[in-house]
Amino acid sequence: MPVLTMKVCPVHPIGRRGTPQAEREEHSVRRCKADAEQTRLKILEAAEMLFAEHGIARTTLEQIARTAGVTRGAFYWHFKDKTAVLSALYERTTAPQLALIREASEQADLTDPLAFLECSGTRFLSVFAADKCQQRMHRIMSNAAMTEETAAWLAEANVELWRVFQRLLARAGEAGQLTDELTPDEVAVSLMVMFNGLLNEWLRSDRAFPLDTLGAKLLHHHIASLRRNGGAA
Length: 233
Hints:
Keywords: DNA-binding, Transcription, Transcription regulation. This protein is mostly helical.
C-alpha cells in the first residue's frame, strides 16, 4: 500500500516581544493597516465626488474604483456596494452630530427640551455653513438619482432624526412647554421641513444669505412660537 505523505509548509517563528524581528513584524502590521485605511479613504473621497456630481444611481462601482486609483477587488474588500459607501460617508459627516444630540436628549436632567433643540439646531447650522463635506453630503442625500437600496437607506436615516425630534418634543409636552395647537409629531414635521428647506435653499441659491445667523434667527422665532402661550424660555 502506498504511503501518503503531506507537504508541510515551513512555519516561521514569531519574534519575541522587544526583539528586532518582533519590531519588524509589528511595523509591517501597522503599515498594512495604514495602507488599508488609506485605500478606504481614497474610495470614500472618490465616491463622494462622483455621487455629488452625477448622483448615486448614475455612478458605477467601476467609476469609483478608477477615480480612487484602486482595483474593484480592493473596493469590495472594504465595501459591499454603493449603499455601504453612502452609509460610511454619512457616518463620518452627519452621524457624529446626530449621536451627540441623541445622547443629550436622553439625559434625565434635561429641563428645557425646546431650548436644547434651539441650541443644537443653531450649532448645527453654524457647522454646516463652514463644512464643505457636510454640504456635499446633503446634496448627495437630496439628489433624486438614487437606487432603490440607497433610497431605503436614506429613509431609515431620516427616521433616526425624526425619532430624536419626537423624543425631545414628547418631553417638552410632558413638561407643559409645548403649545396645545400642535402634537409633538406635527412639530417634528415642522422642524424637519424647516431644516431641509433652509439647507436646500441656501445651497440652491449659491449661499445667497447667511445660513448661520439668519438660520439661528428663524429657528429662534419658530421655537418661540411652539412654546405654550408663545412664551420665552
